[in-house]
Design a protein that fits this description.
Largest interface: A-B, 28 and 27 residues
CATH architecture of the largest domain in chain B: Alpha Horseshoe
Strand content of chain B: under 5%
CATH topology of the largest domain in chain A: Leucine-rich Repeat Variant
Largest sheet of chain A: none
Number of helices of chain A: 17
Number of strands of chain A: 0
Radius of gyration of chain B: 19 Å
Number of domains of chain B: 2
Number of strands of chain B: 0
Strand content of chain A: under 5%
Structural class of chain B: mainly alpha
CATH topology of the largest domain in chain B: Serine Threonine Protein Phosphatase 5, Tetratricopeptide repeat
CATH superfamily of the largest domain in chain A: Leucine-rich Repeat Variant
CATH class of the largest domain in chain A: Mainly Alpha
Oligomer: heterodimer
Chain lengths: 284, 218
């Protein structure tokens, strides 16, 4: 219990699946081979592992793309665990060959496959997927409601909207704008974050700054990570003093700093960048 | 000590996490040396808010808290130990050198490693007997150079901050040069832009610092 509480103060590690019993630590070759292993738990673990360690060898990408169409690994509710992990992994491997397969995954019955595919398409940065992503927002806010008995909306709006923002899909501005007032806070934040990326209007950045004062610590962390992702530098002081763990604040400020550095010629250290670093020093 | 007794009774009788934080905050604000054991105890209540307030109180009390913190270090549960190390890093008394060396290099929690790493650079070396200062700084330098190669960008960032501080207070004349060399490498080759930038800043600040010294030298 003590350990757990303590760990809560760390950044949320990507949840790693338990290593299947009796298995040795993997090599890249072994992991690629395991994607076709008869033991489904080994396939699942291998897909996660290839993403985690960013094994971008063509053979790994090919095997993961094939796993996007896997039919053998199913949950009781009909989900596709291996497809989910393969889609997540492909987002980290920076290989555009994954784009068509991921676009197809946007039509999968499994919500979590669609969500993983949308996230990965946003990370890959190839705008070919924009029309397919936009289609998932059909019906606007009215259609973006919870599915009865499930903990998620009809479509992975949060992931789709974040991806559209990251992809610079200005064609989606009018579609995304109403989601800023979606009843689910996380969707609101995703829309606010995307609207800032697509319009550069400070009012969206400021809205996320206000969210740092919210009562739910989980949502404060989300707002922090959104501010880091958009690199909204005026938020630096508000981030540094927000009521969240230092690990989260540090990571958000890193996003601001890197955004600031990239937008300065020769990545010279501007006064503002130095101010952000001084704030970061105090959070170590 | 009626005041102390009142304050610790309030801690013992707190019935909710929020009440507990308030009671620990009151004890910390009283800045009583005799309240140190109760503040240390509050590090282990499994209440992060209370622990953070207690760390703040101990840091404010400063050097008088160092011996009691070190004495009890092995008896702490894991969470309390992490907070104690953070307090020791912030107080920066060199008695904590051994503890910080170990925590920076090997602790399980990244937040503890960051605090210890930064703390290693900021120790008040002049509090050590003069014949031990150089050796102590060499130990700190070795660990800082080692953790500046960590896989976690934030640990490397903390190492840069620690190296800069150590460079500013170094006694042995070769130390600042070793630090500048390492910072130069990080400034150009670190995989994370943020750590690169902090290394550039540290290098520049060290260079500014050393130029007057150089003119004295010759």
């Amino acid at each position: 219990m003590v350990e757990r509480l303590h760990l809560n103060s760390e950044l949320p590690m990507e949840r790693s699946p338990a290593m299947p019993e009796g298995t040795e630590p993997l090599t890249a070759e072994q992991a690629i081979a395991n994607l076709r292993h008869e033991d489904l738990s080994l396939r699942y673990y291998a897909a996660w592992w290839l993403g985690k360690y960013q094994v971008s060898a063509p053979a790994a990408v090919d095997a993961l793309i094939a796993a996007l169409a896997d039919d053998s690994d199913r949950t009781e509710l009909g989900g596709y665990p291996l497809r989910r992990n393969a889609a997540r992994a492909l987002g980290k491997l920076a290989d555009d060959r994954a784009v068509p397969g991921l676009i197809q995954c946007l039509d999968c019955d499994d919500f979590y496959v669609r969500e993983a595919a949308a996230q990965s398409l946003g990370m890959l940065g190839n705008a070919a997927c924009v029309p397919a992503l936009i289609r998932l927002l059909d019906g606007g806010v009215a259609a973006a409601q919870f599915v009865a008995g499930r903990p998620h909306l009809a479509q992975p709006c949060e992931a789709v909207i974040e991806a559209l923002g990251a992809l610079g899909a200005t064609a989606a501005i009018d579609l995304i704008r109403p989601f800023v007032d979606h009843p689910v806070a996380r969707v609101q934040y995703a829309a606010t974050r995307a609207m800032y990326q697509l319009t550069q209007e400070a009012k969206y950045g400021e809205r996320l700054v206000e969210a740092l004062n919210g009562t739910d610590v989980q949502l404060r962390r989300t707002a922090l990570s959104d501010l880091g992702a958009i690199g909204y530098v005026p938020a630096a002081e508000a981030i540094a003093t927000s009521a969240t763990e230092n690990s989260f604040k540090l990571f958000a400020l890193k996003g601001l700093l890197e955004h600031q550095l990239r937008s300065t010629p020769d990545q010279a250290l501007s006064d503002r960048a130095i101010e952000v670093m001084d704030l970061m020093d105090h959070l170590l | 000590m009626p005041e102390l007794q009142q304050l610790t009774t309030a801690i013992d009788q707190a019935t909710s996490p929020v009440e507990l934080i308030g009671a620990v905050r009151a004890l910390a604000a009283a800045k009583l040396e005799a309240g140190i054991p109760a503040l240390i105890k509050a590090l282990g209540y499994n209440n992060p808010g209370a622990a953070a307030v207690a760390v703040g109180g101990l840091v404010q009390l400063g050097d008088v808290a160092v011996a009691p913190l070190l004495e009890q270090l092995d008896g702490y549960n894991y969470g309390a130990r992490a907070y104690a190390i953070r307090a020791l890093a912030a107080i920066a008394h060199p008695c904590a050198l051994e503890v910080l060396l170990e925590a920076a290099a090997t602790d399980f929690a990244p937040s503890v490693r960051r605090a210890a790493t930064k703390g290693l650079g900021h120790l008040r070396w002049e509090e050590l007997p003069s014949d031990r200062q150089v050796h102590a700084q060499t130990q700190a330098l070795q660990v800082l150079l080692q953790v500046s190669e960590d896989l976690d960008w934030a640990i490397r960032y903390a190492a840069v901050v620690g190296l800069q501080a150590l460079g500013e207070s170094a006694i042995e004349p070769l130390t600042p040069q070793a630090i500048r060399d390492r910072l130069q490498t990080l400034a150009t080759t670190d995989p994370d832009l943020a750590t690169q930038a902090r290394a550039t800043l540290a290098r520049d600040r060290l260079n500014q610092n050393c130029s007057p010294q150089l003119s004295v030298c010759h």
